[in-house]
Design goal:
Radius of gyration of chain A: 25 Å
Mean pLDDT of chain B: 83
Number of strands of chain A: 6
Structural class of chain B: mainly alpha
Strand content of chain A: 5-15%
Structural class of chain A: alpha/beta
Shape of chain A: elongated
Order of helices and strands of chain A: HHHHHHHHHHHEHHEHEHEHEEH
Shape of chain B: flat
Distance between the termini of chain A: 79 Å
Helix content of chain A: 55-70%
Largest sheet of chain B: none
Radius of gyration of chain B: 21 Å
Low-confidence stretches of chain B: 1-7
Order of helices and strands of chain B: HHHHH
Largest interface: A-B, 122 and 94 residues
Number of helices of chain B: 5
Strand content of chain B: under 5%
Number of domains of chain A: 2
Oligomer: heterodimer
Chain lengths: ~450, ~120
Amino acid sequence: MEGTITNFIYLICISLFIIGLKKLSHPDSARTGNLLAAAGMIGAIIVALFAPLESGSNNYAWIAGGIVVGSIIGLTVAKKILMTKMPEMVSLFNGLGGACAMLISIVEFYNPPAGSSLLTGQMITTFFALFVGSISFTGSLVAYGKLDGFLRDSLVLPAPKVINLILLIIIIGFSAYTLMQPELNFNYVLAVLVLSLLYGVTFVTPIGGGDMPVVISLLNSFTGIGAALAGLIYGNQVMLVGGILVGASGTILTILMCKAMNRSLFNVIIGGFTATGGGPGESKDGVAKEASYADTAIMLKYAQKVIVVPGYGMAVAQAQHTVHDLEKTLEAEGVGFKYAIHPVAGRMPGHMNVLLAEADVPYPKLLDLDDANKEFPTTDVVLVIGANDVVNPAAKTDTSSPIYGMPILDVELAKNVVVLKRSMNPGYAGIQNQLFFGERTRMLFGDAKSSLSKLIEEVNNA
Amino acid sequence: MMALRGTVIKLDIIMEVLQHFITDNLTMIYILVFIIFLGTEVISNVPTVLHTPLMSGANAISGVVIIGAIILIRQAQADDYFVLILGFFGIMLAMINVAGGFAVTNRMLEMFKKKKK
């Protein structure tokens, strides 16, 4: 009877996950969806706490400790974190989920079920969970480091493809060897653990910062698969369904992102994103021309139509509110003001949308790639704020460029382009941008936020 | 049993193991396959605006792995400190993922709501 109740409540929780995820994919119902999914999670945790077990001593004190400490840390971080740090946050949270799947499989190996052979589906599943959880853990940490900037892309492994392939073969082979033994050797399991953790590092390290959105999404689906595998180990439906849902949705999201960059997932993972398109500062023709604040302000004030192309630089400078102020200032002068959002601008899909929403920019002002490209030829001034690779014409012309084939925002079609940038250093992908040397391009060096404040001041004075 | 010893991979043994696994977990495998289709279907047609909140929300759901850690601690003996400590960390880490993930998603979505007025 109690078993039936347990399973029934689990079923309700599963439904809440599915409905929640469905609602999360529509703007109007997204918030409700998130709350429904959260309710499903709380329900599942309560059932897991009180469902009758055959054996064991419950150890509620330990569980309560973990839940309380985890909730406090999680909620505090979620409340305090800056919206611009969101990608780093998702990456880090994701790694912790992976770590939990990893810890569970370690314990499962530590207490192997008494039986004749080790070669069972249960054991194979546990090895998979250990492997996937560990990759997700260290991989997310490396992705976090790259986004946060303390791990740079210059950290290059020699022949990453070879290393990854060899490591993968060793892990699979050694896991198989461990299962072939008459008795489980826990030291072997630890060896597989260390190798898997290492694989997570070598898997993500060669992938460039420009591809981090794809990597985070992929690692997110790994964590989901890890949770699902743990669900198989325990025969627990909530974990299985929740995990697979995330695994499937993460995979679809990953594919959508790859499509936006016109690259295959295989190309992102295997190809790496190495800087080959000319060294920094190198240019085929001429030098970049610097703009003055006064000139730019006048150009903006008397323009008919201005389009802003935001990028990660805007996020770093926390300039989203200042951009919105500039928008209000110019609109008061009768200037049409819009935003062109590249699908992979920033460090996550939709990253710019979230930031601009935070600054109260109305949704209809945001143009997607296709609409924006139709508008550029009739635009007077394009302000590129901390974006680089998404406006690099090399993606269309230079077949040797690593970003060749990625659809870009054709800002060079506009009458004037002003690029707000800290320096002439190349973008995250490490490629030089010919746009900066273009006939109609002017550079405005400095921190995006202070540059924009100065522009607003100049517009008001002009 | 002697056939199991040694390191040579025997195909028939693997097949047998696989067959047992499938028969034992048939319902679970059915659920697994259906949910893969369902998950793909539920997510397609997401506007770009919602990619980040969706990723963050899905990430919070992946914290469901906490259930495993809870079951694991409950099954453990009160003096089995290895399991208790690992389980404690498992619960704590997954709980950060769950609580933080849902809270952060809610915070992001709140901003969309405010702007709609």
